[in-house]
Amino acid sequence: MEAYKQEFIEFMVESQVLKFGEFTLKSGRKSPFFMNAGAYVTGTQLRRLGEYYAKAIHDNYGLDFDVLFGPAYKGIPLSVATTMAISELYGVDIRYCSNRKEVKDHGDTGILLGSKIKDGDRVVIIEDVTTSGKSIEETFPIIQAQGDVQIKGLMVSLNRMERGKGTKSALEEIQETYGFPANAIVTMEEVIEYLYNKPCQGKVIIDDTMKAAIDAYYAEYGAK
Length: 224
Fold this sequence. Notes:
Elements: H1 3-14, E1 18-24, E2 30-35, H2 43-61, E3 67-69, H3 75-90, E4 95-104, E5 110-114, E6 122-126, H4 134-144, E7 150-159, H5 170-178, E8 182-187, H6 188-195, E9 199-200, E10 203-204, H7 208-221
Parallel strand pairs: 3-4, 3-6, 6-7, 7-8
Antiparallel strand pairs: 1-2, 4-5, 9-10
Helix pairs in contact: 2-3
């Protein structure tokens, strides 16, 4: 596993973004782990988060694209932090763009915030985590409406590796539905492999009991 992935797993735990215990998800599923990207709140955390996204985008899609699109609202700071990190790490200037929830009819008008998207632009979409693909359903037509645009892929922070609407993971469903690749900085498989019976932040996060709970969860809800 790449060093930045290991660092990112520790970073999620340290930032209390990835927690283990007993949680009820929006879907109603009882999960032994929970991710809340809203817990990234400081300048240092956002700078580091942008760097991890930048490295993952570089590894999966390269940097030969024009616009990084972050769907409102959580995608807005992600797109800003990551374009800054790409500039600092690789010396490449990528434009950031997000959508508004409501169309603005005065001043900087329209549905888009940041850079406009135009014919010929190559776009990477950035999100925190995707469980159902609902935000892509909203985002995809907005991007397509801007012109002849190529979407190179989607990058999220964590692939939960559980079923979406069908038997496959949400990221696999997105790839099949929209025809562009969908990847994550890390998968839950990598998280489990790295944290199982190893100390992190001074304690063992995934011991045998937690591993058994995770295995039971994936037996019921894991993607096929």
